[in-house]
Amino acid sequence: MIDLLKKITSCFFLALICAVTQAQVAKKPVRTVDSSSMTDRATKLAETGHCEEALPLLKRSFPLASDKDLKLRIGIDTVRCAMTLNQADLAVDFLRALNREFPRSPEVLYMSVHIYSDLSTRASQELANVAPASTQARQLNAEALEVQGKWDEAEKEYRKILQDNPRTPGVHFRLGRNVLSRPETATTAEDAKKEFEAELEIDPRNAGAEYVLGELAREAGRMPEAVEHFTRATKLDAGFGDAFLGLGMALVAEKKYADAIPPLETVVKLQPGNPAGHYNLAIAYGWQGRKEDAQREAALQKATAEKIEQEKQKAADAIEKPSSGQESQKPELPK
How many domains does the chain have? Predict the structure, then answer.
């Protein structure tokens, strides 16, 4: 019964995608009559549920279509039919092609969300059917429970994994994340710290665990400890922008401005749109007497912060709901 319900749900989403995208495409008039009889037949077959017959014709028609609206319609029909016939690779290939041809199309983006979601659901169902007692299936189930806010149930599932294999990589990290996701208690930080430290005993190359330990230490005011963790995280992952930012902020807090400059310069390269990187780099430059550099970074901090606020306002306006939030306290720039 559950499998039948999942199939019905999957079919419903495919039908919904088809109906919505086709309706949106149909609103746009086709400018030229470049659709051959093959294309006409392909789209009619696809849109009346004859996907097995339609798919070969759709694949041949797509590269031949010169009219954009017609090409979009053919592509959407191809993706839908491929999914209906369980040809996931073909569906993804055509979805990528559509995203290349129509990178900002609401129809394509809408379809992308649902197709990738459906593929994820199908893969999780297959995993549950093929290896229901596997570590991966249990881990996926625990992650799903976390998303639902069922922290205790998720923890039990993770603990079961560790009972079978105490050295499974990644599980203590997820347990630590689980702790931090719950409502905060007096022992939250310490409980999370134990899990991330346990993760590093199993996987010393886990940059994420080092980073979170650094953040926990920084928030507790233990700056030397934070610097050690952040430094290790940056060495493990040279593209970990947040780790470089944490390191720079900890060094600024310790007034080690010269040491803070290199990691903060890395941050603004990796995350040029992050105001915090520019802000802290402006502080470090200022205290090192590099006034022009400090002024430049302060201007960039202001510009990036304003851009983020503008994006927030756009999103709020789109849903007709005012945005709210409080700015965090920041250290003062040197005069």
Answer: 3
